[in-house]
Write a structure and sequence with these properties.
The chain is α/β, with parallel strands linked by helices. 55% of the residues lie in helices and 8% in strands. It is built from 21 helices and 8 strands. The strands form 3 sheets. It has a 4-stranded parallel sheet, covered by helices on one side. A two-stranded antiparallel ribbon has the order 1-2. The two termini are 51 Å apart.
């Protein structure tokens, strides 16, 4: 995926980048091949959109610069990724399990090249407990629930439309089923996500036809055995087994790319997470704010969803960046809330019951983000105005102070000096030594702001 990686680097850069600069960020390939790859990108893009249409401008002195139209970039991305040899290996080893000799003939590669690519992929797949074997045929091996989830996420990430998936014939059938389920289960899935649901339905149906029997994580087997946790299976899916129906409902419930609707009752899964819930909420409250009982229930639900999904597939940092377009490192650079969240997270992962996983961390941050506004991180300062020059002047000073300091502080003007953190006074008072007091003596608002700034 070096072509996409190079484009991503150039898009994120304002101006030109040299080959060495790209190489240092890429952490793969080599300096000499970067120029060749950039020329290949332009050649392929021209073949799709016409002569003169290019994505990268090259300059002998300056290096390379992205000049393309972002509007059409996803079409090119889908083209290069779906034709990449790694994509063919990952998908065909699940769907077709082709003969080794036929595969190398189809893609005009040598057996040694195939072995090297499989070895590299297996190194990457190890974190998911998956492996491609070459015992006469190429086969993606591992738990069926993980095999299916991985291939689903891969294809959903790469393809803009299910109609572009060559393996998926009769796409209208799966789109029709997804629309029926959306209606009958009241999922309220928006239009552009219907295609993702159709792809998941296709994965289930293909597995049924190939006799890929669905399995579940061992820790969930007793819970999964209960048929009362799922809605009744619709008559038009009568050929699905109950296990396939449970798998489908559980993935829709735990994978937030579809809907917020809960079609699988996951309360029993929550029992596996009670200690984690208690720790998470306790540490959150130490770093942020007190939670209401309803918010604690909400957190239990969301963290249980994340936990269940992670039992099906171990989502690592690389997968988040590629398949979910989620880069926590980038977020850290642009959101000051992460400074406090990092302290919370460091404390959380020291606990034995914690889940130290990149996806869980990212979702925890997003959960904190939804519970707690960065606005609430501001220092709260209560000010008492002891000004004798009249309400108009006093109000004028209050307005100017709010205009200047609200971006950084919660400013509250109080009527009781005993409640104040700061007093703005026009004259001395016998109790002033007990407070931090700013004396203004009918100064202009600009001078008041300057004085208060020094105090803050």
């Amino acid at each position: 995926m070096a072509k996409k990686d190079i484009l991503d680097i150039l898009i994120a850069t304002d101006g030109y980048m040299t080959r060495n600069e790209i190489y240092l960020k890429l952490k793969q390939s080599n300096v000499e091949t970067i120029q060749t790859i950039c020329h290949e990108i332009n050649y392929e893009y021209e073949s799709l959109f016409g002569i003169g249409k290019q994505l990268i401008e090259s300059n002998l002195r300056e290096g390379f610069k992205f000049i393309g139209n972002l509007k059409y970039l996803h079409i090119y991305y889908e083209h290069i990724l779906s034709n990449d040899l790694d994509y063919q290996l990952l998908t065909e080893s699940y769907f077709r399990c082709p003969d080794n000799a036929l595969f190398i003939e189809r893609y005009a590669i040598s057996m040694s090249t195939l072995r090297r690519r499989v070895q590299a992929l297996n190194s990457y797949l190890q974190v998911f407990n998956l492996k491609i074997t070459m015992k006469g045929n190429l086969k993606l091996e591992g738990p069926e629930y993980t095999r299916r989830m991985y291939v689903f996420l891969l294809m959903n990430y790469i393809h803009a439309s299910v109609k572009n998936i060559k393996t998926m014939v009769n796409t209208n059938k799966y789109l029709d089923i997804s629309k029926k389920l959306n209606r009958d289960l009241s999922l309220e899935i928006i239009d552009h996500r219907i295609e993702s649901l159709a792809l998941l339905i296709f994965m289930v149906e293909y597995a049924i036809n190939m006799n890929y029997k669905i399995t579940f994580p061992e820790v969930f087997k007793d819970i999964i055995a209960d048929n009362n946790n799922v809605p009744d299976k619709p008559s038009y899916l009568s050929y699905w087994s109950m296990d396939e129906w449970k798998f489908f409902c559980l993935i829709v419930t735990t994978q937030d790319m579809f809907t917020s609707a809960l079609i699988y009752d996951i309360h029993e899964f929550r029992d596996h997470m009670l200690d984690n819930h208690s720790i998470w909420t306790y540490i959150y409250e130490q770093h942020f704010n007190t939670l209401t009982p309803s918010l604690k229930t909400f957190i239990e639900l969301k963290t249980t969803q994340i936990y269940v999904l992670l039992e099906f597939i171990n989502l690592d940092d690389d997968m988040l960046k590629r398949f979910f377009i989620a880069d926590y490192d980038y977020i850290k650079k642009h959101d000051t809330l992460t400074e406090v969240f990092e302290n919370m997270w460091e404390e959380y992962i020291l606990c034995p019951q914690s889940i130290n996983n990149p996806y869980y961390k990212l979702q925890s941050y997003l959960l904190v983000r939804s519970l707690y506004s960065a606005h609430d991180l501001k220092v709260s300062i209560k000010i008492f105005m002891r000004v004798v020059y009249g309400s108009i002047y006093s109000h004028h000073v209050q307005t100017k102070i709010k205009e200047r300091f609200t971006p950084e502080y919660h400013i509250e003007f109080v009527d009781n000096s005993a409640e104040a953190d700061l007093i703005i006074a026009s004259r001395l008072h016998e109790k002033d030594n007990d407070f931090q007091t700013v004396y203004i003596y009918l100064n202009s608002s600009q001078v008041v702001i300057s004085i208060v700034s020094m105090t803050f």
